[in-house]
Amino acid sequence: MFIIKYKKIFLSVSLALVLLSISSLFVYKLPLGIDFKGGALTEITYTDVRPNVEVINQALSNNQSLGTVLVQPEGDKNIIVRTKDLNESERQVLISALNSTGTFTINNYTSIGPSVGKELKNKMILAIIFVSIIIILFIAYAFRNVSRPVKSWKYGVIAVITLLHDIIIPVGVFAILSRIYHAEVDTLFVVALLTVIGLSVSDTIVVFDRIRENLKNKRYVTFAETVGNSLEQVYTRSINTSMTVIIVLVALSIFGPSTTKVFALMMTAGMFFGTYSSIFLASPMLVLAEELQNRKK
Predict the structure, then answer these.
(1) Residue 101 clears pLDDT 60, i.e. is over it
(2) Which domain holds residue 55?
(3) pLDDT single digits (tens) 144-192
């Protein structure tokens, strides 16, 4: 019952984390990758030892026609060079500059136009909105027989609020990580967000389902007691389940390839705060909704 007793503290912590994440977005911003803003991606493998990234950056910075260039190490001998969309002459300038750093072979060259990037960005936003609406409708239907003391549709709205909490915080974490690892928003970023949504809502529904079961059986006198005791019955299972996934993600971020490092770190943050929100945010908000409803009567 301590979670419900100190619900205002936990709600304040969540609000503070969300505000900090939004602040980090304003300070660091989200660097869009070529998937969204268009551009070119060149992947090369050095024949001998790969030079330091600083050496490569120095060679490329001498060519103003290339614009902003981002060099990302990959494996032992590979690098990925992200640039604006290049015409043939600019591409030759890039290759010539890279030739001064060592012998290499070009593995892949990808060019994405800005119109394709805009379409992907719109689809990402629509996907998140669509998923949120479906979640509200599904939970409202699943909890249709539990309309007292909190109406079933409020369970859905609270679930979506917790989802926004679980999305905003990892995105804020990503904004900070992007400055450290020079990561950019790409399709893997979208996959991470949608995965966090799916895992978070499933955890929240487990908690809500136990509340629904206890409400039907009328095991406790007040709604706050029902929610508090329901949490005590499931939070250990919820934490243990999330911890097994987090351990795997931490291992992936440490031992996995650099291309999935930021993805794994973002997923770790999403799993952690998703579990936190299911226990310390969603359920207290149900009690708060019930209290506000009683005040209006």
Answers:
(1) yes
(2) 39-112
(3) 776 567 777 788 888 888 888 988 998 888 888 788 877 777 777 878 8
Q: How many Cβ atoms are within 10 Å of 108's Cβ, its own excluded?
A: 9
Residue type, 50: R
State the CB neighbour count (10 A cutoff) for residue 107: 12
Considering all CA atoms of the chain, what is the largest pairwise distance in Å, rounded to the nearest integer?
A: 77
For residue 174, give every residue at least 6 positions away whose Cβ sits within 8 Å of its Cβ, in sequence order, or none. 30, 183, 185, 189, 262, 266
Q: What would the pLDDT profile of 231-287 be if each residue is shown by its tens digit?
A: 888 888 888 888 888 898 888 888 877 667 777 888 888 888 888 888 888 888 888
CATH number at residue 180: 1.20.1640.10
Q: What is the pLDDT of residue 296?
A: 65
- Number of domain units in the chain: 2
Q: For position 117, what pLDDT does the model report?
A: 62
- Is 76 in the same domain as 188? no
| CA 22-25-28 angle, 5° bins | 145
Instruction: Give this prediction's pTM.
Output: 0.76
pLDDT in the model for residue 229 = 85
Instruction: Output the DSSP codes for the chain.
Output: -HHHHTHHHHHHHHHHHHHHHHHHHHHH---B-HHHH-EEEEEEEESSPPPPHHHHHHHHHT-GGG-S-EEEEETTTEEEEEES---HHHHHHHHHHHHTT--EEEEEEEEE-HHHHHHHHHHHHHHHHHHHHHHHHHHHHHTTT--SSS-HHHHHHHHHHHHHHHHHHHHHHHHHHHHHH---B-HHHHHHHHHHHHHHHHHHHHHHHHHHHHHHHT-SSSHHHHHHHHHHHHHHHHHHHHHHHHHHHHHHHHHS-HHHHHHHHHHHHHHHHHHHHIIIIIHHHHHHHHHHHHHH-
Cα(110)–Cα(200) distance, integer angstroms: 34
